[in-house]
Structure formats: structure tokens, C-alpha cells
Amino acid sequence: MMRTIGSVLMTVVIAVGIVISTPDASAAPPAGACNNPDPARPPVTAQPWAQQMLDPRSVWPHSTGAGVLVAVVDSGVDADHPQLKAPGTVLRGRDFHLVGNLPGNFDCISHGTAVASIIAADPVDGVGFVGLAPDAGILPVRVTDRDLTDTGQAAAIDPAVLARGIRYAADQGAKVINLSLAGTADNRYVRDAVAYARGKDALVVAVAGNGQQGTTERTLFPAGYEGVLGVGAVDQTGTRLPSSQIGPHVDLVAPGGAVLGATRAGGHQYWQGTSFAAPFVSATAALVRAAWPTLTADQVAERILATATPAPGGRGSPAYGAGLVNPYRAVTDGLVTAPPAGLAALTLTAEDPERARTAARWEATARTARWSLGAAGGAVALGLIAALLLGRGRRARWRARPARPLPEQPTPAEPPDQVFLLPHPRG
């Protein structure tokens, strides 16, 4: 089932892989905020392939994202989910979609909850799924409440609302802003909001977009704006999803094919698309910013790109960008920005005369020894030859003997002029 948030201006594509039955859990959005909300799902206990591939536990001894605030500008985040309800994990946030001073920490369609969980879901017993940066804080910024209209078309996100949400996230101190949405139009409100966030040292991460057709390259926004990390999606083989957009705005790729994420009102669900690849990169940015707090947003982006794992398309390809995000290397690699140091000039020292005379004496001694050994060996060989000749001469009484005649060689049979495979024909 495909679900979309967006319009000609801004679009989010959601492809749901596995949908399971409803348990008893329940969320508590404000009264009347959700129209036909998604049902709750049961938990999935198996460890997902994306967590196996990126191995977040190998990074946690070095960084867990503590102290870094990540804004999820989306459909809201369900703060009641068991893996997101720890104090300080999901802040109150703000709802820019509905009128009134409503929070952003509820979700009607689970999209934003899934994105937030990929970033910061806490480990719980009996569940293999976990966020990449579990100690990062989530600032939920709600800019939509639906994915489809009553007629089944993609619901629109007002660019002005999106722009206000991005500015709000930057003003609240978010150091990473996740935008799991994309559109084909360059909107000035959104462009200015992204520039405003960058001016406050926030790293903006956006999806490359879904809906790729053939090999045609196309730039989508806000991933196409200056300084934004554009993220494509790959499956568990590391191959780009056929729907993942290609173009110059693709900076790197992350897991996005059948990845697990949390759902509103508890439980988990498998999701598909670049919307769920972007939070892996946002979480990596949170890990880096916690481990390297003096780096600017642009330097964090450079570090993430420099440590990406090479992908099939080669570095800088329009389909894979710099490669597959590598959280462990992004945090632990000791990168240096200084150019390689030049080699010191080679200086020849003056030769010690006494040492040279000693070496010459040893060389002369060795040469004499070699000549003496060679001469002795030659004398021994001559003596052996002489003894052999004398012995043979005595046995022959010093008389000459005729040489032995050579053995007769058989005359080769000449083949006939014609060879018959069958018996020779009679005359």
C-alpha cells in the first residue's frame, strides 16, 4: 500500500511493507486532532536488517547522541510509544498544522513516529529494534495530519507552514533537522527557511525523494538546496531502491527498503522509501555532533560523507552519492584537515676517512680470500683429472686402442605413396 504526503510543492512518499493486527495500546492525541487515525500495531521482536548492518551498539561506547536535539518536521511523534516515552526523549514540540497552541508530540498516521524511532528509540528487552542515537532528544514539529485526501490523492503540505516549522526548529536549538519530505518545485519560503536554519548551525537532512522513473535525473527539494544532505534509499543488498530518486541532490544513501520503525499507539511496522533512509543519516549526525561538539554543521556533513562506505555506483554517482552512511566510522575515524606534510630534504653526510680505510682493508682481505679459495679448488680438480688419466693409462699398458664402432642405425621404412584405410585394392 502506498501512502503520500504532499503536493506539487512538497511530497512525502510512504510505502508500507508489512501491516499486522491491532493490540490494546492506545495513544492520546488532543480531542478532534486525528481524523480516522492509524491503528496500533503489535511489537516486532526480531532485529531488523538495518540495525544489523549499521550495528549501533558498536558506536555507543563512543557516542549515543546525548545532548543533541534533532527536530523531526513531519506528522508529529507519538511520545507514548514504549521506546520513546523515557523522560527527555520526545519534547512537547509544536503543531503548525492545526490552529491553536497544540503540541507536536502526537501522531495520527505514524510517519513521524517511525522517523523519530529510527533516530532515538530506546532499547527495550525482547525487541531487536533500536534507534541509532538513543540518547538524542527529539523535537516534534507537526506540519501535516494526513497522507491522503478523501479522494485518495496526495495531501498537500503548505510550504509556508513547512517553512515556519523549519524556522521554529532552528530557534529551539535543534542541531539536526530531519525533513522526510520532497517536492519538485523550488519554493522561496522553504529555501529561505533552510538558509535560516543553516545560519543557526543546524544540519538539515532531507530525502532524495521517491518516484524515480528510468535513468532520468531530477533535482528535488529541499534536498537540492545548498548545504542540505540529500539521502537516497538502498535495500539490504546495498542496491538502490528502484523508486529512490537519482540526481545531483543525492549526497549519500542509507537503508530504506523494508526497514522497521515504531508506530503510533505502540508497536512496529515495516516501511519503504527514502523517508526512512533520511533518519539514519540524521541519527548519524547526532552521534557525530555529540562526539565532536566543536564541529560546525558543514564540517559534520563533510565528515559523514568522507566516511561513507563505497557503494556500487562509485563515489559521487547521482544514484548513491558518496556511498552508504557508516555511523561507526563517522564517529571514530581520526580525520585531519591539514594537507600532507612535505618530506624533509635529504642531506648527505661527509664520509669518515678512518671508516673508509677500514672498509677498504676488509674488502681487500675478502677479495684475496676469494682468489685463494678459487685457486685451491682448481688445483684439487686438476689433481683428480690427472689421477683418472694415469689409472686408465696403466691399465692399457700405455697402448692406443681403436675406438668402439658406432651402432648401426636401422633404416627407416619409407611410407608408400598412398595410404589406404581399407585393404589395398588388388591389381
Report what the structure shows.
This protein has 427 residues and is an alpha/beta fold. The chain has a domain at 43-332: Peptidase S8/S53 domain (Rossmann fold, 3-Layer(aba) Sandwich), CATH 3.40.50. The chain has 9 helices and 11 strands. The chain has helices at residues 49-54, 56-59, 111-120, 159-171, 188-199, 278-291, 297-306, 327-332, 353-395; strands spanning 2-6, 11-16, 69-74, 94-95, 137-142, 176-179, 203-207, 229-234, 252-255, 259-262, 268-272. The chain has a 7-stranded parallel beta sheet with strand order 4-5-3-6-7-8-9, sandwiched between helices. The chain has a 4-stranded antiparallel beta sheet with strand order 1-2-11-10, covered by helices on one side. β10 and β11 form a beta hairpin. The chain is elongated. The protein starts with a strand and ends in a 32-residue tail after the last helix.
How do you describe this structure in short?
28% of the residues lie in helices and 12% in strands. It has 427 residues and is an alpha/beta fold.
Number of helices: 9
Structural class: alpha/beta
Distance between the first and last residues' Cα: 93 Å
Q: In CATH, what is the class of the domain at 43-332?
A: Alpha Beta
What fraction of residues sit in β-strands?
5-15%
Uncertain stretches? 1-27, 148-152, 417-422
In N-to-C order, the SSE pattern is EEHHEEHEHEHEEEEEHHHH
Q: Whole-number average pLDDT?
A: 84
Rg over CA atoms, rounded to whole Å, is 39 Å
Biggest pleated sheet: 7 strands, parallel
Q: What is the 3D form?
A: elongated
The CATH H-level superfamily of the domain at 43-332 is Peptidase S8/S53 domain
The CATH topology assignment of the domain at 43-332 is Rossmann fold
Helix percentage range:
25-40%
Strand element count: 11
Q: What's the CATH architecture name of the domain at 43-332? A: 3-Layer(aba) Sandwich
In the sheet with the most strands, the strands line up as 4-5-3-6-7-8-9
Active site: 74 (charge relay system), 111 (charge relay system), 275 (charge relay system)
Biased composition (Pro residues): 404-415
Pfam family, one: Peptidase_S8
Family: Belongs to the peptidase S8 family.
